[in-house]
Design goal:
Chain lengths: ~240, ~240
């Protein structure tokens, strides 16, 4: 099965959580929009806007697996998990992995809203004072709550992985969040990381996994930039 | 199996999507925190904070089914769907139902953030100008996008249900969103509803289902109020 991933070609964004899982598994996949160049976005929008489609995705990312189209990042990972050997196979375990992934999803929304608290359709420059206020609250209460929770889950599970005794897609997603928060808020993270030693060590272990390491060094990994979920604005990081 | 639902006892909030599914199915369940009175919230927080628990919920709502604890609203519905006969049984169908439910989840976050765009830990009165701006954008772009999408999915499926030929938990969740938006934004909704005739008719059909009708008339249905996700502020509805 060759998987087709559809996502914006110039950002990591939400698609990156799927890319990391496909890469770690050494899956056969095409990052369609990047692969197709200029025609890529049109191809993606055609699937979303297809008037004949009974099950159109609401937004990217989505995955095509044969005739099946699966959208919503956490849903894609739930589908891929057992196929890529990146999630528990029993029902309770797969629900638990998904539950954690949905908590990652909640965090990602809040990261995005630090720089766009009013609207994703307005420029950052049009919502700068609001972004400053929201970011302050984000670091005061939300990061400690979210990352504190993941740290607790990790420690309770023995410190190596978040779930069971093997890597899951949730470990990869937490890795991605640490990377993203480091890019967007280097000062904040420097201070905060001592509170989450387990997650930082997990991040390091993930980065050293052979396939992830090769992926991160390749041009398949889009660098963090100012259009994605994680953005660096100096005034939000002081 | 007697299900135990844990959620805040004074609001509909995210728990209501689960309550509606349990009620429609005539399931054997206890709304634990409401049932226990004052000790209820303590019982709920004890499960969340339980240092011995290997799989603690991040936040309410969560469902206890025997020894299993499932959290995250959409995850709970994914678990309950086949058990309550409220979702397709095939993999593609159940992923599609879940995908739509996750889009409902996204909408619910955005509804909440109309009145709390800066922080859920601050009072509305501390973020009123920001709330006004966010609400304006919400009605300009986000409601048309979300509800327009659900209307399209509904029409494409024949107009009766969002998925297949029977009611699913997604229909119940869309019903709840229409009810909530009517409570929070009566003026906005009055104007907007002509763009979503299918969803409005679906809302009416759901409201007339015998078990839902009985539930809505009972004291098990908590009235909308100013502490939940959907809140009415006159200045946000003009």
């Amino acid at each position: 099965m060759r998987y087709e991933l559809y996502y914006w070609p110039t950002i990591q964004g939400r698609g990156e959580f799927v890319r990391l899982a496909l890469e770690e598994a050494g899956a056969d996949y095409v990052d369609v929009v990047r692969h197709k160049g200029k025609a890529g976005v049109a191809a993606m929008m055609k699937i979303i806007d297809d008037a004949r489609s009974a099950r159109p995705p609401f937004a990217p990312p989505f995955l095509k697996a044969g005739k099946l189209i699966v959208a919503q990042t956490a849903n894609i990972l739930f589908y891929l998990g057992p196929r890529l050997n990146l999630s528990p196979r029993d029902e309770a375990g797969s629900l638990w992995a998904h539950q954690l992934q949905l908590t990652v999803t909640d965090l990602v929304v809040e990261v995005h809203d630090t720089h766009h608290p009013i609207s994703g359709a307005l420029y950052y420059e049009q919502q700068k004072p609001e972004a400053k206020r929201r970011t302050k609250e984000f670091w005061r209460l939300r990061v400690p709550k979210f990352l504190g929770y993941f740290e607790r889950v990790l420690q309770k599970n023995g410190g190596q992985y978040l779930i069971g005794r093997r890597l899951t897609y949730v470990d990869l997603s937490v890795f991605q969040n640490i990377e993203g928060l480091r890019y967007a808020f280097p000062n904040h993270m420097k201070r905060f990381e001592k509170k989450i030693p387990g997650l930082v060590a997990l991040r390091d272990r993930v980065a050293q996994r052979p396939r992830i390491k090769a992926y991160l060094a390749s041009d398949r990994r889009i660098p963090f930039n100012q259009w994605g979920v994680y953005r660096y604005y100096k005034e939000l990081d002081s």
